[in-house]
Each structure stands twice: as structure tokens, then as C-alpha cells.
Amino acid sequence: MFQRILVANRGEIALRVIRACRDMGIEVVAVFSEADRDAPYLDLADEAICIGPPVPAQSYLNIARIISAAEIANVQAIHPGYGFLSENSHFAEVCRDCKIEFIGPPHQAMALVGNKNEARKLAKKVGVPVVPGSEGLITDEKEALRLAEEMGYPVLIKAAAGGGGRGMRVARNDINLRVGLQAARQEAEAAFKDGSVYLEKYIEQPRHIEVQILGDRHGNLIHLWERDCSLQRRHQKLVEESPAPNLSQQVRETICQAAVRLVKEAGYFSAGTCEFLVDKDKNFYFIEVNARIQVEHPVTELVTGIDLVREQIRIAAGEKLGYTQDKIEQRGSAIECRINAEDPAAEFRPSPGTIKRWHPPGGPGVRLDTHVEAGYRVPPNYDSLIAKLLVHQPSRTEAIACMRRALAEFQVEGVKTTIPLHREIFNHSAFVEGRVDTTFIERNWMKG
Ligand code: ADP
After folding, report:
1. C-beta neighbour count of 34 within 10 angstroms
2. How far is the CA of 442 from the centre of ligand 1 (A)?
3. How big is the chain by its Cα radius of gyration, in Å?
4. Active site residue 404
5. Alpha helices in 305-361 (DSSP H)
6. How big is the CA angle at 18 (ends 268 and 373), to the nearest 5 degrees?
7. pLDDT tens digits, the chain, 448 residues: what are they?
8. Ligand 1, residues 237, 438, 440: which to mutate, most atoms within 8 A of Cβ?
9. How many helices (H) and strands (E) does the chain have?
10. Which of 292, 314, 338, 396 is an active site residue?
């Protein structure tokens, strides 16, 4: 096992990894940009190293600076968290070349599944259904128009290197498509330095169901069941839960097995997630693999009792899973609300600033993963996630009641948050009955 690990990330996930290291008796080194200099979690690490200015390209995304910090701190492994360098296969390769273990999948598998177009090919190869779409990348407008005609509108333009909902455009006619292609290419080029795009049929009002995967270096690969992440705004998740409500056991098992087949074919190990869309007729389609720990991983931890970050670290150190598929149960119901510093009443505009009052909820069945406290200044430079509020109860009905109680207790002043919106969601009959899809928030809260 490793004696010393570096966390190449910030915020709640940096704290999550620090905690896992503490539990495992591993020393942990944090890195921070100048914007995070005063972050309270830095005091919980054994050492904290400044890696540069607030702009991510010069700090959390800067491979040379992260590797230098790792060498100075003399660590054996790097945990990348999510976002930033977590899905950068070049970074994983550089770590290996520097004799530092990358806590994640092998770089070849990451490169393979990280390209959505390649991942689609892989899915087709192992008989996993994909959303109907272009065979490969779209090179010219004429071809796109012809394909759209063939598939029928609406279609979705997607960036091959996409993530975080960027480089994605819905087109409902030829004019939309022409304009959307340009815009998606430019957005993808700016965000990922790769402007290549492809087309998919736009599935109307689908559910987003994803499967947690865990595999070791010895060929053991299992799933930890699904999460329903249908509650989204602008293709970004806001509420996640497990088990998915109103999903038959047969569909659940078929999707989970499809996920295992797909990542196995990629030569994958460590934690990962296979994402699917499920349409109104319960047809499911693979959309992408996330080759990292995800924001919503605690939902799965609560229902399965498995600490995913600890498992990632164990696997990177070469240990075996030590349990088999038949031992993995979904116990009770777990739900997560993402608490972001943003204003739901103003199109979810970020709301950075100083938190003046912070009264977190607690009590039975509540887990709060957060790096903030009263007096903390939410920097404007990064993702607006400030906390993940989770509940775990024997049934979904009890979990909803528990979340309502926790949301009512949760008081934050100084920045706008998604808490008021969550309170409304948890009182909305469609959500309570488990009848929501990926357009639910847009249809109900973002009109006009
Ligand atoms: P990203 O990597 O940018 O997060 P994904 O491919 O994971 O993009 O998709 C994110 C979300 O976008 C999905 O959860 C879903 O809401 C929506 N989406 C993606 N593909 C489609 C599609 N073909 N039809 C309808 N919605 C889609």
C-alpha cells in the first residue's frame, strides 16, 4: 500500500480524498491555487503546496506544476479527483513515466473510452445499443444535413471530446443544424482543443441512468448498480439517486450487464461510470463512459456500503477487489442534492462571494460532503459546487421525507444557492412519484 498520496484537485473532492487517506493511514499532500490559499481543508492534509495562480491552466490543469509538487512532496501516487486532469490520458501517462501511480484507469483505456465516438464503436462491437447517429465524425455540412434527414429531426450535435454539457446543440431543422454545427465546433475547440463533432438522434424527454463500475488489475470487474441522474439543468446533474425509481429489475440488470461488457472490452480497471439514456418505451442507449470517480459517487456508497475512493486507492496499489458481484446489494434508497453557489431564479447564474451564515443539516440518515464553512469565500474561478447533501433511508418515500427535513434545516446566507429549488423539487408530485426526465427542470423552472 502507498504511504503518501497527492490530491491533484480542490474543494469537496480534495477533502473526500484526504478523508479516505486518513481512514487508510496514508499520508496526504494537498495542492492549491492562490484562490484556494485559505481553504479550511488544506489544514487537514499533511502538507499543502501552492501550484500557481487561480486560472486553472496555470494551476489545477498544469501537468508540469502538479508533477513538480508530487516530486517535491515525494508521493507514490496521485489522486486526480474529478474534472481538471482526471480524464486526461496524457497526464496519466506522464505520471507513469515519472514512476508515480495514477489513481484511475490505465491511460490506454482512458484514451479509448474518453473519445465519445470511439466509445460508441466499442459499444456497438459488444452489442450494447447506442443512440442512432453518424458512423463517425462529421466533416462537412452537406453530410450532416443528409444524415439529419435520414435520422429525422430533432438531432443532437455532440463534441467527440465533450464533457459538462459543452459543445452540445439540439437542432430541430436545417437552419438550426447549420448554425449549431459552427457553434458546437467553436465551443468544443475552445473547451477541449478538439473541435470534432458527430450527430446523434435527440431522444425526447429521456431518463439518465448510469452504472457504477469497479474493476481491479487482476481481471475482476463488477458493477455497483445504477444511479438515476435525470434531474439536470443544461445537461448538468442536480439530483441523483439509487435505485432508479420505476425501473423494472429486468431492465436494471440488462443495463448493468451491458455496462460491464463495454468497459471490460476497453481493458478498464479502477472506478468508472457508464452512462445511458432510457426512452419512454424503456429502450436504453449508451452515451458515454466517465473514466473517473464522479461527483455523485456517495449515492452508490450509501446503498452498497462500499467506499469507492478507498477502493480506487486499493486497486491502484495492486490489491484485489476481494468480493464478487453476488455480494453487491442495493440496500434502501439514497438521494443526493447538489448544493451549488448559483441562483436558480436567474438561469443558474454563478453566485460567488463570502458565506456569511452556514447552518448545515444533520441527524439520522444524513451525510453532508462539503469543504465550506461560515466565512468561506466561494471563488469565482471554479465550479460552483459547495456541498453534496445526501440521505439514506430504507425506502424512497422515507428518503424523500428525510431530504425535506434536511433541506428545511439547511441555512446559507451570503451567496445564492440551489437549496430553495431543491425544496420545491422534493415537494413536486412528478418527482415524488418518480416520473421525471432530463427536461423536468427546464420545463418547470426555466420557462422563457
Ligand atoms: P457530457 O459529457 O457533456 O456531460 P453526455 O453525453 O454525458 O455529455 O450527456 C449529458 C446529458 O445530455 C445527458 O444526461 C442527457 O440529458 C443529454 N443528452 C446526451 N445525449 C443525448 C441524446 N442523444 N438525446 C437527448 N439528450 C441527450
Report:
1. 15
2. 14
3. 21
4. no
5. 308-316
6. 125
7. 999 999 999 999 999 999 999 999 999 999 999 999 999 999 999 999 999 999 999 999 999 999 999 999 999 999 999 999 999 999 999 999 999 999 999 999 999 999 888 999 999 999 999 999 988 889 889 999 999 999 999 999 999 888 878 889 999 999 999 999 999 999 999 888 889 999 999 999 999 999 999 999 999 999 999 999 999 998 999 999 999 999 999 999 999 999 999 999 999 999 999 999 999 999 999 999 999 999 999 999 999 999 999 999 999 999 999 999 999 999 999 999 999 999 999 999 999 999 999 999 999 999 999 999 999 999 999 999 999 999 999 999 999 999 999 999 999 999 999 999 999 999 999 999 999 999 999 999 986 5
8. 438
9. 14, 22
10. 292
Rounded distance between C-alpha atoms, residue 391 and residue 408, angstroms: 13
Q: 167 in ligand 1 pocket by Cβ < 6 Å?
A: no
* CA of 213 relative to ligand 1 center, distance in Å: 19
- The residue type found at 316 is A
Burial-class residue 58 by CB neighbours within 10 Å (0-12, 13-18, 19+). middle
pTM above the 0.90 mark? yes
Distance CA 222, CA 220 (A): 7
d(CA 66, CA 231): 34
CA of 277 to the centre of ligand 1 (A): 8
Residue 287 Cα to ligand 1 midpoint, Å, equals 7
Domains of the chain listed by start with CATH number: 4-103 (3.40.50.20), 132-201 (3.30.1490.20), 207-445 (3.30.470.20)
Cβ(235) to ligand 1 under 6 A?
Answer: yes
Atom of ligand 1 nearest to the CA of 208: 14
DSSP H/E element including 228: strand 221-233
Q: For ligand 1, is residue 276 a contact (CB within 6 Å)?
A: no
Ligand 1 atom closest to the CA of 438, numbered from 1: 16
The finding on whether 340 has its CB within 6 A of some atom of ligand 1 is no
